[in-house]
From TrEMBL:
<dbReference type="InterPro" id="IPR007497">
    <property type="entry name" value="SIMPL/DUF541"/>
</dbReference>
<protein>
    <recommendedName>
        <fullName>DUF541 domain-containing protein</fullName>
    </recommendedName>
</protein>
<dbReference type="GO" id="GO:0006974">
    <property type="term" value="P:DNA damage response"/>
</dbReference>
<dbReference type="Pfam" id="PF04402">
    <property type="entry name" value="SIMPL"/>
</dbReference>
<keyword id="KW-0732">Signal</keyword>
<feature type="signal peptide">
    <location>
        <begin position="1"/>
        <end position="18"/>
    </location>
</feature>
<dbReference type="InterPro" id="IPR052022">
    <property type="entry name" value="26kDa_periplasmic_antigen"/>
</dbReference>
C-alpha cells in the first residue's frame, strides 16, 4: 500500500512538473511612445532669507519682505489657489571663531503661473520685493496626465508593430499580450530656457526676449511578451 501511494505521488509530481515547464511560444519586445507639447504653466519656488544678530529683528524683517511679496503677487491678479507660503524657519547659527550667535530666517512661497506672458514681470517683481533665492523654476503642462496616457498607448502600439515585423517573416501571427511591464520613469520635465535678464538692469522697459520655453517631451517605455499563434 505504501509503495502504491509513493508511486502515485511521484507520478502526480512528474505530471505537475511537466505542466509547469511547458513552454509558451512568445516574443518579447520593447516599445516607446513620445508626446511633445508646449508647456502652459510654470511652477516657481522662491525664498526670502534674512540674516542678523537679533532673532526678533531678523524675524520681523523677513515677515515684512514676505508680506510685500504676497501683496505684489495679489496685484498681478493671480488666483489665491495658485500661490502659498511654506517652510517658515528661524535658526540660530553659532560662529565658533567669533563666539557669536547669529540668526537666519527663511520663508518660501510657491507659485503656479498659468499665464507665461507674465513670467518676466513676476520674476522681476519678486526680486524687487525681497525674494533673494530662486529655488526652482519648472515649466510644465496642466494636461500631463492625459499626455502620459497618450504616450503609453503609443508605446504599446510601437511594441506590437515591432513584434509583427519580427514574426512576419516566419509565417506566424502575434497573439494576445502575455506579460506587460511599464518601464517609464516619473519625472518633472524642465525644457531648456534662456537665463532671465538681470533684475538690477537699469532699463526696465527692455524688449529683449529672455525666455525660450521649448517643448516638453513625455516618454513612456514598456516591455511586452506576446503569445505567438
Amino acid at each position: 500500500m505504501r509503495k502504491l501511494v509513493l508511486f502515485l505521488t511521484i507520478m502526480f509530481m512528474t505530471m505537475s512538473y511537466g505542466q509547469e515547464t511547458k513552454q509558451i511560444p512568445q516574443i518579447n519586445v520593447n516599445g516607446e511612445g513620445k508626446v511633445k507639447v508646449a508647456p502652459d504653466q510654470v511652477c516657481i519656488s522662491a525664498t526670502v532669507e534674512t540674516k542678523g544678530n537679533n532673532a526678533k529683528d531678523v524675524k520681523k524683517q523677513n515677515d515684512e519682505k514676505i508680506d510685500a511679496v504676497l501683496k505684489f503677487i495679489k496685484k498681478m491678479n493671480l488666483p489665491a489657489a495658485d500661490f502659498k507660503t511654506k517652510q517658515v524657519a528661524l535658526n540660530p547659527q553659532y560662529d565658533y571663531e567669533k563666539k557669536k550667535t547669529s540668526y537666519n530666517a527663511t520663508q518660501t512661497v510657491e507659485i503656479v503661473l498659468k499665464d507665461l506672458s507674465k513670467y518676466d514681470e513676476l520674476m522681476e517683481g519678486l526680486v524687487q520685493q525681497g525674494i533673494n533665492r530662486i529655488d526652482r523654476v519648472s515649466f510644465e503642462s496642466s494636461k500631463l496626465t492625459s499626455l502620459q496616457s497618450e504616450a503609453r498607448k503609443l508605446a504599446m502600439k510601437d511594441a506590437k508593430a515591432k513584434a509583427e515585423d519580427y514574426v512576419s517573416v516566419l509565417g506566424q501571427k502575434v497573439g494576445k499580450a502575455y506579460v506587460i511591464s511599464d518601464n517609464s520613469q516619473i519625472y518633472h520635465p524642465q525644457p531648456m530656457y534662456a537665463a532671465m535678464k538681470s533684475m538690477a538692469a537699469d532699463n526696465a522697459e527692455s524688449a529683449n526676449e529672455t525666455l525660450a520655453i521649448g517643448e516638453i517631451e513625455i516618454t513612456a517605455n514598456v516591455s511586452v511578451s506576446f503569445i505567438l499563434d
